[in-house]
Amino acid sequence: MTLRERLNDIVRRKGEGLAVMATMLDSADGDKRDLTEAEEADFAYLDKEVERLKKEEARTHKMISDETVLAEPQRTIRMSTAATTTTPEFRNIGEFLYSVRFQPQDERLQSTETRQQSMGVGVEGGFAIPTQFLPTLRMLDPQAAIFRPRCTVIPAGDPPDSEISMPALDQGAASNVYGGMTVGWISEAGSKPETDLELREIKLTPHEVAGYTILTDKLLRNWGAAAATIETMLRLCLTGTEDMAFLSGSGVGQPLGVTNAPARIDIARAGANAIAFADVYGMLARAKQGGSLVWLGSPTILPQLITMTDAGTNSVWLPGNMNTIGAGAANAPPNTLMGIPLMWNERSPALGTAGDLMLVDLSYYLIKDGSGPFVSTSEHVHFITNRTVIKIHWNVDGMPWLNAPIPLEGSPANTISPFVVLN
To answer: Is residue 411 in some structural domain?
Structure first.
C-alpha cells in the first residue's frame, strides 16, 4: 500500500467513526436521554480510535511531504556576501496565487514548473499547486463532500493521467454471485462440475475538468488577509464539481455517476411527486446489506418524510405522536431512516424526480485521481477593470464497481444492489 493509499484509508475510517458517533448522539438527543452503558462504551472506543487515526493521519501527511521533497530536484542555492539561505516556501495559497499572477519568475514557482513538466503537461498548462497546500485543499468534510470520503479512491500514480485497467468478477444475473463459479457436492467417484470463472475489465481514465473565477487585483495583492477566503473557494469548487459528477455524470468525457450506473436498481414510487412508507422499505429490501449504506435525500423531500405514515396513519419518521396536535413538533427530525444514516444532498434532484431519494453503499464506487490540481491566471480579459481570471483544473475519473445488480443466492430471480434509486 502506498502512502497516499494509506492516507485515503485513514481518512475513510476516521470519517466512518465520526459518522457513527454523531448518529449515536443524535439518536440519544432525539429520544431525550443519555447514552446507555453499552453506547457509552462504544462511544468511548470510537472516540479513542478517531484520536488515534488523527495522529496517524498527521504522521502520514508528514511522510508524504518528506517523500515529495526528496523526489524534487535540488534547488540552486545562490551565494551572496550575506549568510547562505534557501528560498522559503509559500506561506499560504494566497501568496502562491499572488506570485502566479504578479511574479511568475518567482524562484519558488520553478519547482512547481519542474513537477508539472515531469507529468508531461508543460508550463503553458499552469502551475501545480504546491504539495503542502493539497491536504487542506483536499480536506474532506464528510458533510460537505459526500462521495470522496466514502468511495474507494485510487491514487494518481505515474504517469498520473494514464488509463488504468483492473479485473473484476462478473456478478450479474447472466453469471452468479460467484462470478460464474459452479459449486456442487460430489459423491464418491463422481465427476467434478465444470466451472468457468467470468471476469470483466474495469477501465478508468482521468478526465480533465476546469473552473474559473474572477478576483480583483487588489484582493490578490492583499493575499495575507484573503488567503482563507481563496482557499475555501477553491475547496468548494473541487468538492462540488466532483460530487455532482460522481452523482449524475454521463460517463462520456466525465465520470459515470451513480444515477446512471448499470448496476442501480430503480424502485417505482407508490405515488407521483410523493414518498410513501412503502417506497422506503421497498428500497431497503433491494439494497445490498452488510456494507456502509447511507441514504442521500434532496432537501425537497423533507415534508414528505415528516408527514409519512403507515397503513394506520401513524407517523413513522418524526419522533413523538404526530396524531396529537403539536406533540411531535418540538423534536428534531432524525438523521437516520430505518436505522441508516440520512444525508441531505443539495445536489440531488427535486421531489418527484428519479434520485430524489437514494440508498447507496459508496464503497462500491471507484475514484481514479489524475494529475493536478493546477492553477493559471490571466489579466487580459478584464485588464481595464483591474481584475484577474483564476483558472483551476485537474484530472479525475469515477465509476461504479459493479455492472449489474447481484442475484440473490437463494432466489436468483431477485436482485440486490449497492445503488438503489427511487424512480
So the answer is: yes
DSSP of 181-236: -------TTPPPPP----EEEEEE-PEEEEEEEEEEHHHHHTHHHHHHHHHHHHHH
Are the beta carbons of 116 and 375 closer than 8 angstroms? no
DSSP 384: G
Is residue 98 in some structural domain?
no
- Owner of C-alpha cell 488567503: 227
Residues near 33 by beta carbon (within 8 Å), at least 6 away in sequence: none
Interval 252-273: pLDDT, tens: 999 999 999 999 999 999 999 9
Beta strands in 57-132 (DSSP E): 127-128
Q: What is the distance of C-alpha 401 from the center of its chain?
A: 15
**Is residue 343 in a domain?**
yes
φ/ψ region of 53 (left if φ > 0, alpha if ψ in -120 to 50, else beta) reads alpha
Q: With contact defined as beta carbons under 8 Å apart, do 279 and 269 qualify?
A: yes
Residue 172: per-residue pLDDT = 56
Of the residues 21, 36, 71, the one at which a domain ends = 71
φ, ψ dihedrals at 271, nearest 5° = -145, 145
Domain count for the chain: 2
**Single residue among 36, 71, 106 that ends a domain in this structure:** 71
Whole domain around residue 356: which residue ranges? 258-361+403-422
pLDDT digit string, tens, across residues 110-140: 655 434 433 333 334 566 666 666 655 555 5
Distance CA 154, CA 370 (A): 9
CATH of the domain at 347: 3.30.2320
Residue 390 and residue 269: Cα distance in Å, rounded? 45
Looking at residue 190, its pLDDT comes to 65
Residue 234 in domain: no
